[in-house]
């Protein structure tokens, strides 16, 4: 007999439970008719739980499944690691089940190049919340004092790159700022190392070390501003070199300009055709002219006038004087004996050559005082040219020739022989 609606059946007492166990199948839910209606107030909704859910075995199995699922999820949660990965300064979060830095990079799909760097190292074990940094390698070329050398660095700036290659503390001037970025494509930097120099102002000397590219900038670096008329040697645009002495001359007042002559002078040269000691003016000297700028400067602690610059207005022309080096033929006794010695040989010479022992008649090949031919001269015992012999030798051989032709002067001097 079913209990009245709304009442719960009583559970049999333990002593009688085994005797009243009845297997009663559950009643099916009636098919709904018309629109659904809620239960009446005060009435209980009939149970709709299927019989399967009421079975004890199902409930135990479900409980076991839930426990297993919860256990598996906890294990997975425990194995997952949240890592902060920084690549070239940019952060990202990476989740990995791996145990090493290499696993983190693999999870993030980051491949290391030959010159890249990772911190900590790829084989290092990682833990949850750890930081991993990757820096890409980049080519850094430093040309120091004309010598270039390339390095692979992971630095982001020139200053960091210099630290990596051990040049950070060396004094040098750079073609770019130290804060300049080193891109992944690489960077070439030109640098100058410091030069040891001496700055001299009159008698004062100062040793300095500078990386400046010009003498002028070295002076500015040391508080020396060149005035309009000041002079510096070497010039301000000159590139400094080790050991260079920079001389500064500071001008007092305004310079003055004036024109002054340039003395030409005389050049002396030898002439072996002139008798020894004889001089011959080939060209007279002509003085030139120049414009000079002078100023008062301090020199040796005293004020003195100094030429700042000069400009040649007219070049000088040197004179030329030749000095003879030719040794004169020795004088000989012109007497040969006989009637020839008493003749007027000076009169003959005057008629033939004008009395010039050097006379040369190039048209006829006749030489000297008495216009000997070379053949006739040789026949009297002479050597060389008659014009090179001394006057006394020429007269002596003319007398010999006279005797050789037995006084027949007409055969030798047909025009002038009458003066003998």
Automatic annotation (TrEMBL):
Q: Which CDD domains match?
A: RPF
Spell out where the chain crosses the membrane: 58-79
SUPFAM superfamilies recorded for this chain? Lysozyme-like
UniProt-listed InterPro entries: DUF348 (IPR007137), G5_dom (IPR011098), Lysozyme-like_dom_sf (IPR023346), RPF (IPR010618)
**Parts forming coiled coils:** none
Bias (Pro residues): 25-38
The family database entries (SMART domains) matched by this protein are listed as: G5
Q: Pfam families, alphabetically?
A: DUF348, G5, Transglycosylas
Q: Which domain of life is it from?
A: Bacteria
| Domain G5: start-end pairs | 248-327
Q: Name one GO molecular function term.
A: hydrolase activity
Q: Where is this region: Disordered?
A: 1-45
Which UniProt keywords are present, listed alphabetically? Hydrolase, Membrane, Signal, Transmembrane, Transmembrane helix
Keyword hit for Cytoplasm: no
Would the keyword Transmembrane be found if you checked this record's keyword annotation? yes
* UniProt family annotation: Belongs to the transglycosylase family. Rpf subfamily.
- Name this protein carries in UniProt: Uncharacterized protein YabE (DUF348 family)
Species source reads Murinocardiopsis flavida
């Amino acid at each position: 007999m079913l209990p009245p609606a709304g009442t719960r059946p009583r559970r049999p007492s333990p002593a009688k439970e085994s005797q009243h166990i009845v297997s009663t199948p559950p009643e099916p839910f009636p098919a709904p008719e018309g629109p659904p209606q809620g239960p009446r107030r005060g009435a209980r909704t009939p149970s709709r739980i299927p019989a399967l859910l009421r079975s004890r075995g199902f409930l135990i199995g479900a409980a076991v499944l839930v426990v297993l699922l919860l256990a598996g999820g906890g294990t997975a949660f425990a194995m997952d690691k949240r890592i902060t990965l920084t690549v070239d300064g940019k952060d990202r979060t990476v989740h990995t089940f791996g145990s090493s830095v290499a696993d983190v990079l693999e999870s993030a799909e980051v491949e290391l190049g030959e010159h890249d760097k990772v911190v900590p190292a790829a084989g290092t074990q990682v833990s949850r919340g750890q930081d991993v940094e990757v820096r890409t390698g980049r080519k850094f070329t430093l040309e120091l004092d004309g010598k270039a050398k390339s390095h692979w660095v992971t630095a982001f700036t020139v200053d960091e790159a210099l630290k990596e290659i051990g040049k950070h503390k060396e004094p040098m001037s750079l073609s770019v700022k130290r804060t300049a970025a080193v891109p992944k494509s690489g960077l070439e930097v030109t640098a100058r190392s410091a030069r040891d120099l001496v700055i001299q102002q009159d008698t004062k000397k100062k040793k300095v070390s500078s990386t400046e590219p010009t003498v002028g900038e070295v002076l500015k670096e040391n508080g020396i501003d060149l005035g309009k008329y000041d002079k510096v040697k070497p010039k301000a645009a000159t590139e400094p070199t080790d050991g260079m002495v920079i001389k500064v001359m500071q001008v007092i007042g305004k310079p003055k300009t004036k024109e002054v002559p340039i003395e030409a002078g005389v050049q002396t040269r030898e002439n072996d055709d002139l008798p020894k000691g004889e001089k011959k003016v080939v060209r007279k000297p002509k003085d030139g002219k120049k414009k000079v700028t002078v100023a008062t400067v301090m020199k040796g602690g005293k004020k003195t006038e100094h030429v700042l610059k000069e400009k040649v207005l007219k070049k000088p022309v040197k004179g030329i004087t030749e000095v003879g080096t030719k040794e004169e033929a020795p004088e000989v006794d012109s007497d040969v004996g006989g009637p020839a010695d008493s003749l007027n040989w000076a009169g003959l010479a005057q008629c033939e050559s004008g009395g010039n022992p050097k006379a040369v008649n190039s048209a006829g090949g006749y030489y000297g005082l008495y216009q000997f031919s070379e053949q006739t001269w040789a026949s009297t015992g002479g050597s060389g040219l008659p014009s090179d012999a001394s006057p006394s030798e020429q007269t002596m051989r003319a007398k010999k020739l006279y005797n050789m032709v037995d006084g027949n002067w007409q055969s030798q001097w047909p025009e002038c022989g009458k003066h003998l």
